[in-house]
Amino acid sequence: MGIAVTRPTSLVMSALFVLAAPGAALAQEAVQADSAEQINVYGSPPADLTGLPEGPAIEGIISARSGGRMQVTGADETNTTVALSEGTEIRGRGGFLGMKRTPLAADALLNGLPVTVETVQWGGGLLASRIRLKDADLKTAAMIRSGTAQGFAEQSAATEALRGRMGDIDQYNVKRTTNVYFDTGKWQLSSAAASELCATVREAEATNNALLLVVGYTDSVGNEDYNQVLSERRAGRVVNYLQQQCRWAPYRMLTPTGMAEADPLADNETPEGRAQNRRVSVNILVSKAVDGLQ
User: Fold this and answer.
1) 183 plus 165 within the same structural domain
2) Is the pLDDT of residue 129 over 60?
3) Is the pTM of this model over 0.85?
4) Collapsing DSSP states into helix, strand and coil, what is residue 96?
5) Closest by alpha carbon to 252, among 138, 146, 142?
6) How many angstroms separate the first and last alpha carbons of the chain?
7) Is the distance from CB of 127 to CB of 121 less than 8 angstroms?
8) pLDDT value for 94
9) Which residue in 27, 43, 75, 193 has a CA-CA distance of 20 to 30 Å to 218?
10) Which residues, in sequence order, are CB contacts of 88 under 8 Å at separation 6+?
11) Residue 277 in contact with residue 218, Cβ under 8 Å?
12) Do 128 and 119 touch, CB atoms closer than 8 A?
C-alpha cells in the first residue's frame, strides 16, 4: 500500500478519452429545409419500425438516460440523443469468441456502457432500432452505476464548471496518486485498502475543486481480454467504495477505466513486481482553469 505524490501523465491521458461528456436536456426537433421555423414533435415512438428510413450508426458510451431517451457520447465527444421504443432490439454479446447473444431489457442501458446503435429516422430525430453491447461491459457498468449521471437534468452548471472541457492531461494538475493493491485474479478490497481510500477522500475534500480519476490495472498473468475485464472490475469496486462508504460525491468523479497490463509500476518478471502492478490508482486532479480558486 502506498502513496505517490507524482505519477506519469500517460495513465491519465489514457483514461481521459473515456470520459462521459456532460449532457443537456434535448427535445426532439426538426427544421424544415425551406424554413427556419422550429417544429416540436410529440407522440410515442412506434413499436413497428418497418419502413422507416435508415439513420446513421452510432458508437460511443451512454452518457445519460431520461425516460425513453438515451444520450451517446462518441470518442470525439459528440453527443447524440436517440429515442427508444418497444421495437428497439437490445442484445448483449459474450461467451466463447463472443458467439453468445443475449436479449436484454431497456433497463440494461446503464450510463458508462459502450454501445453500438443502429438507428432509423423518426419524428425529425433518431430512433434506436438495434443496440449491441458486451456482457462484460454491462457487468462493469452495473458496478459503477452510481458513479455516472442518471439523467440529463442532473448535469448542473456547478458540475460542468468543475469538470471543464476534457481534453488532455495538460488541462489538469495531478495533486496526489494513491495506489491500492489486489491479490492475483481478485478485485476484493482489503481492510487496509479500504482505509487508504477513505484517507484519500479526506485529502481530496480538503483540496479545492478536486476531482477523482480511478484507473484499474493488472499484472501480466492471464490473457488480454481477461485482464481488461479484471482491471475494470477492480476500478468499479474502488469507485463503489469511494462513493458508498467514503461518501465521495458522484459528480466529482471522472469516468473510471481499466487499463489491464498498461503502465506497469514494476517488472512483471518477478513476484514482487507483479504484486505492485495489481493495483488501482486513485488520482486527485484539479483543472488548471480553477486550480487555486476558492
Assistant:
1) yes
2) yes
3) no
4) helix
5) 146
6) 32
7) yes
8) 59
9) 75
10) 106, 127, 128, 129, 130, 131
11) yes
12) yes
Based on the fold, state whether residues 163 and 102 are members of the same structural domain: no
Count: domains in the chain: 2
Judged against a pLDDT cut of 60, whether residue 160 lies above it is answered with no
Residues spanned by the domain of 122: 29-137
Can you tell me the distance from the alpha carbon of 127 to that of 112, in angstroms, rounded to the nearest whole number?
A: 20
**The three cell numbers locating residue 184:** 492475483
Q: Express each pLDDT in 195-222 by its tens digit.
A: 999 999 999 999 988 999 999 999 999 8
Q: Which residues lie below 8 Å from residue 50, measured CB to CB, with a gap of 6+?
A: none
**Residue 161: count of CB within 10 angstroms of its CB:** 12
Q: Is residue 147 part of a domain?
A: no
Per-residue b or e along 44-65, where b marks 16 or more CB atoms closer than 10 Å to that residue's CB: ebbeebeebeebeebebbbbbb
Question: Do residues 240 and 212 touch, judged by C-beta distance below 8 A?
Answer: no
In 172-199, which positions are buried (b, 16+ CB within 10 angstroms) versus exposed (e)?
Answer: bebbbbbbbbbeeeebebeeebeebbee
